[in-house]
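Appendix B. Chain record.
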Amino acid sequence: MNKYHFYTISANKLKNISNVLMIIAVLLLHKNSLAQNNVGIGTLTPTASALLELVSTDKGFLAPRLTTAQRLAIPSPANGLMVYDLNLECYYFYNAVTSIWQSTCTGLQGPPGPVGPPANNAWFLIGNAGINVATNFLGTTDLQPINVKTNNVTRFIFPVANQVHAAVDGTAALPFYSFLNNTGMGAYRAGANILGFSTSGLERMRVSANGRVSINAITTDGQLDVKSNFNTSVAGFSTILGVNANATGTGLIAIGQGQAINASLTGSGASIVGNNLGLFIEYNSTTVGDGIKIQNTIGDIWSVGSIILPAGTKRKIVGPGAVSTIVKDLEGNEVMLNCPESPENLYMDYGVGVLKDGYAFIEIDPILQKNIIVNEQHPIKIYIQPEGNCNGVFVQNKSVKSFEVVELNNGKSNVPFSYQIVATMGDQISTDEKGVERTYKYTHRWLKVPEKGKTLKDLNK
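Structure tokens predicted for this chain:
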């Protein structure tokens, strides 16, 4: 029995001797490493600061692999002992200070941080309840801005100022500020210092860098430029509609040439103020049209600056009533003088002459000659008033250029007289911007009044 036991001990000793000899062989092979007091496997020059350096391009370091139960069953593990946990699939090392196996997958646990606010003071991704608007807010308490991003691109910036900045411009089709159900409607930056507004994906209004505002136009011809294709109808009305519902209000006030605001105290549809010109009106029709049309509620219409048909004549004023001027009477009160009116279009002139031996030759003013028609259908009318004792006078040899005054009964008086000339208006020729001439005739009598034009009120009757 003792012999068998001795043999067994001898075999273990021989095995230990073999292990020792193997270690000595390894040490002899790495004598350079021993000289540096460190070991290199796969390299003859291990790093000086490393006790053991492993170098390979096709192999790795394999630490002891234990189950979690085996790792926890290691008796008195040394501080820093490392193993690979097969169950948790992670490296663990033992921390003797805390007596804890520390996972390398969860990182090292640092010292406890400061206590944060309670959970009911946090902003949650799923929303908050019980917010106090007096004390709760989303923002910063220091001089730092807030950036709002989507897809990691900044969309909004809340700077340290009383502003909110848009980080992108947007377009008319996709304005930066828009609405959930109307993404093509909103505001955007159309250019440097240019603010654009769009609806249905199209630009409708623009405020330029110089303060000019354009509606339905990119460029402006005025401080406010409004362009449209509205028609004068119940649906369209007009390009600009000014309505003042107050009984003494003014619908539209237009001030030009640096003048002060002025309007009727009792109100009006429009008030226009200028320096040397209050209102300028132009229309382009050369066949028919009106510069101004005035209408009252009982159906009277006055047309100013008109071309009317069928005769095709130009008229200063067409309408009912009398043409009047204002003068002052002996007490300084204003009274009216009224103009005579005729079914014909007439020019008149007045003059004085003298009978010499019962005869006088009168030449008609050359300017009047140029602007009247004298023929068999439209004779010139001459009215003479002697201003002295004579036999009376008559007129002979009337023409567009002159006429003669002769004393009756071959008298030879030398007395003054006055005269009046009445003649039909001559043709008027106007030339437009393209050089086209148009002739307007005034030889008719009792010209028919143009048919009254329809208005919005007429359409609504």
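Further analysis of this model is presented in Appendix C.
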